TrEMBL record:
<protein>
    <submittedName>
        <fullName>Polygalacturonase</fullName>
    </submittedName>
</protein>
<dbReference type="GO" id="GO:0045490">
    <property type="term" value="P:pectin catabolic process"/>
</dbReference>
<dbReference type="Pfam" id="PF00295">
    <property type="entry name" value="Glyco_hydro_28"/>
</dbReference>
<feature type="signal peptide">
    <location>
        <begin position="1"/>
        <end position="22"/>
    </location>
</feature>
<keyword id="KW-0378">Hydrolase</keyword>
<dbReference type="GO" id="GO:0071555">
    <property type="term" value="P:cell wall organization"/>
</dbReference>
<comment type="similarity">
    <text>Belongs to the glycosyl hydrolase 28 family.</text>
</comment>
<dbReference type="InterPro" id="IPR012334">
    <property type="entry name" value="Pectin_lyas_fold"/>
</dbReference>
<keyword id="KW-0964">Secreted</keyword>
<keyword id="KW-0326">Glycosidase</keyword>
<keyword id="KW-0732">Signal</keyword>
<dbReference type="InterPro" id="IPR000743">
    <property type="entry name" value="Glyco_hydro_28"/>
</dbReference>
<keyword id="KW-0134">Cell wall</keyword>
<dbReference type="InterPro" id="IPR011050">
    <property type="entry name" value="Pectin_lyase_fold/virulence"/>
</dbReference>
<keyword id="KW-0961">Cell wall biogenesis/degradation</keyword>
<dbReference type="GO" id="GO:0004650">
    <property type="term" value="F:polygalacturonase activity"/>
</dbReference>
<dbReference type="GO" id="GO:0010047">
    <property type="term" value="P:fruit dehiscence"/>
</dbReference>
């Protein structure tokens, strides 16, 4: 079935603030009125080749990266250069901050993950981990290849490695890079603030497990834009503690679509708010827009606006699933437990045939609408929502 759907989905009452506070400040040098003519700082170029890296795609270049990072981190306005036309085969690396200000990492060649699983024994969860960085830029024309094939064949529930993680970073820019074939997720931004992610190309096969594109967790003020994301799992996933998340001009597909959650696993309290997704295209994804929460958890997903989303060949355009279950044995129904809140959820303006909204929603919301209506936390207010849906084919 070919669906072309243009829709506006509004959850909750309050308006989303459309700009990420401070976003504009990212990466721009501070201007002082009295020294405008001052020459720009000279950059200290730290070339990975000077630290014994071979870049032949076979030799283990991990130590060269560790040494070069150490140097670059201590240099004012340092640029860690990974030259073009080289492939650096590396195991897990922790790029720790804080560093001197103005550090940039220019990835023009390729970083390729070690296929030797024993290399990951010390920290199973991270391959490239950037931690405690401030005013940091990662960019370049190069690529990051997680060599995921050796991981995908393993059971999908064993601990797997995230290709690129940013943890506790402030004023972070990640741009232009290509990320592919991660062990698990491509890129996660965790417990960070003031982040701009743009012009990424993210690809993994449609059947590669858990290869989410961009995973945002516990992060405030993040703007993700102009990126192409085709993977085997969520295009963008936004989970607990994230607020002021904007995603725009994103192309997704294949994959599982854009999702909020899952929230409230193991009865945890999770909150997600101020999410603004607009001008996105989803093509050939299993889901479109999804909010998923486990039974029994607490918290909320609120102030969410999906606007101008184009869907083509999407199996489940909208899923609001408050009975999410993603484990081998079925989750026990917990009807008595408080259902998670999607605050003031409202629908309006279905134009797909007269008198059919209910039927339509039964098709798009996988867990049927009656269920949703029955929960105290969710109201369906058809006056508030504006929706325009066009179906072709
Ligand atoms: C986060 O990073 C900053 C430096 O940017 C550091 O001072 C702080 O201690 C870090 N916080 C945690 C929880 O690691
Ligand atoms: C629809 O998407 C699926 C993957 O989800 C793909 O296999 C199929 O070829 C697509 N169909 C069309 C008509 O594009």
């Amino acid at each position: 079935m070919l669906l072309r759907i243009l829709l506006i989905v509004l959850l909750a009452t309050s308006l989303f603030s459309t700009s990420c506070q401070g976003k504009k400040k990212i990466g721009k040098p501070k201007k002082h009125g009295n020294n405008v003519k001052k020459k720009p700082h000279t950059n200290a170029i730290i070339d990975i080749q000077d630290f014994g890296a071979k870049g032949d795609g076979l030799s283990d270049d991990t130590q060269a990266f560790i040494k070069a990072w150490d140097k670059a981190c201590k240099a004012e306005n340092g640029v860690l250069l990974i030259p073009r036309h080289k492939i650096y085969y590396i195991g897990p690396i922790k790029f720790h901050g804080p560093c001197k200000k103005g550090l940039r990492m220019m990835i023009n060649g390729e970083l390729r993950a070690s296929k030797d699983l024993s290399d990951y024994n010390e920290d199973r969860r991270h391959w490239l981990l950037f931690q405690n960085m401030e005013n940091f830029v990662v960019e370049g024309v190069g690529s990051i290849d997680g060599n995921g094939h050796v991981w995908w064949i393993r059971s999908c529930k064993v601990d797997k490695t995230i290709a690129m993680t940013f943890y506790n970073c402030t004023n972070l820019i990640v741009r232009n890079l290509e990320l592919k074939n991660p062990q698990k997720m491509h890129l996660t931004i965790t417990k960070s603030k003031l982040v701009e992610v743009s012009r990424l190309k993210i690809t993994a096969p449609a059947d590669s497990p858990n290869t989410d594109g961009i995973h945002v967790s516990g992060t405030k003020n993040i703007d993700i834009h102009h990126s192409y994301i085709g993977t085997g799992d969520d295009c963008i996933s936004i989970v607990s503690g994230s607020t002021n998340v904007r995603a725009r001009y994103i192309h997704c597909g294949p994959g599982h679509g854009i999702s909020i959650g899952s929230l409230g696993k193991n009865k945890e309290e999770d909150t997600v708010s101020n999410i603004y997704v607009h001008d996105a295209t989803l093509r050939g994804t299993t889901n479109g827009l999804r909010i998923k929460s486990w039974q029994g958890g607490r918290g909320y997903a609120k102030d969410i606006l999906f606007q101008d989303i184009d869907m083509v060949n999407v199996t489940n355009p909208i899923i609001i699933d408050q009975f999410y279950c993603d484990q081998d044995k079925p989750c026990k129904e917990q009807r008595a437990a408080p259902v998670r809140r999607c605050e003031t959820l409202a629908l309006d303006g279905f134009r797909w045939g007269r008198g059919r909204p209910k039927k339509y929603w039964r098709e798009v919301i996988r867990y049927d609408m009656e269920q949703l209506q029955l929960t105290e936390d969710v109201t369906l207010d058809r006056k508030v929502w504006r929706k325009w849906i066009r179906v072709e084919g």
